[in-house]
Amino acid sequence: MTPGLDATILAHALRSLSLPRTVYTYGSVGSTMDLARPLLKTLPPEQFPVLLVADEQRTGRGRMGRPWMAPPGTALLVSLVLQPTWLQPAEAVYLVWMAAVALCEAIETVTPLQPVLKWPNDLLLPVGAPPALTLAKVAGLLLEVNSTVDHLAWAIIGCGVNLTSAPPADQTRYPATSLAAAGVEVDRMALLIALMQRIDGWYQRLAAGERDALFGAWRSRLVTLGQQVRIETAAGLVSGLAEQVEPDGTLLVRQASGELCPVTTGDVGL
After folding, report:
1. Is the pLDDT confidence value at 230 over 70?
2. What is the pLDDT of residues 73-90, one digit of tens each?
3. 159: β partners
4. Average pLDDT of 95-108?
5. Which of 50, 170, 192, 267 falls between 20 and 30 A from 142, CA-CA?
6. Which part of the chain is CATH 2.30.30.100?
7. Are the C-beta atoms of residues 99 and 141 closer than 8 Å to each other?
């Protein structure tokens, strides 16, 4: 088990970055996302962006409301609260891409591993050995936003990375792994600092209008493209070849009928 993170030490380590301005660290919590929301009502604007980090998460969740629980010290558990009022509501997806690309880059900075992305927001690592080599989830991202008609009022990015353990197979929909299972012991502070450095860089680039660069970086890591997929959507199951992804994040799937089906959200199985 890795030791807890100290807010003062962490804030000092991140002092050269434009974000965050405020850091909170916790021991055992239900969910960092749940702790983040009240801060939007109680903290003055000058204290944002806000970073929350926890040692243990008891009632966290991932996409589709699935549980994301982590025993003490076994995962990097982070929520980042932003007020990107310069983004339009339809551009909120850029924040997911930003976090996904930044996390890939951070892992590559502190380890020899090269994670890939499963559309829309899961990080995968190869597990096993040929010919039984497969991909398993090592991290997930979650985005919550609130917007007006013409801009985002706030956004909370949740991030969970399996450092030394992963949920058992009977508790996950798809295979899961950890950085330790991939053969790498990672210092949690080092990974967090690398992540915030990468987020800081991409956030500034995004604010400067570099949307195409971010989209290209995200798209280049999508292992989903060129794969046969099964996607559970609100309208039903979509299956076929994941051919392309649009600049707004829509996945285009070529079905057996030959029809090209656009998918904006869903749960992907490879």
Report:
1. yes
2. 899 999 999 999 999 999
3. 78, 141
4. 98
5. 170
6. 228-269
7. yes
